[in-house]
Amino acid sequence: MEAKRAFLPDASAARGLTDGFAPLARLWAARGRLALIGPALNARFHLRGATRLGQRVTLRGRPKVVNQGTLIVGDRVRLDSTVATLELVALPGGRLELGDNVFINYGSSLVSSTCVKVGNDCLIGTHVMVMDCDFHRVEDKAWDTAGAPVVLEERVWLGNRSMVLKGVTVGHDAVVAAGSVVIRDVPPRTVVAGVPARVVRRF
What angle do CA 73, 168, 113 make, to 5 degrees? Predict the structure, then answer.
């Protein structure tokens, strides 16, 4: 019995053992926050040319970012450029504005020569295109970046491979189905689908 007691740690030794693991326990408890440090630093690096960069922005992957005008990124924006390159482009005189809590998935392209505004809490799927100009005239194929503003109001959801063209306002809470081409305004709280996109549901 005495021999067995000799191998049992006393209370002070047990406390020392526990204290030794305390930093690891705190690190394990903070693992969720640590997982965001890399994407947060990545966002600070790749979006360093933004006119204004909000708090708690995260970015995964390497996007193509061009700011020759005004690029505003709101708080808690989440960007993904892993599988395919995400493009955020503000041409000279253009204003590209991302509201708070916006998510943009990989392969999407947002280009502004005039104004593209993405409202708070919007979701943009993969390979989506949002452009406020045509880039070329049909008649002579000449370069032309004259455009009309594009506005996505709050809580808009753009499905995969959809396109929103110049002069369009997408109303709050609207959903644009995958593969749709939006050439006219979308009413709030509707689902639009097709080429060109038409209202297929109201809610």
Answer: 55
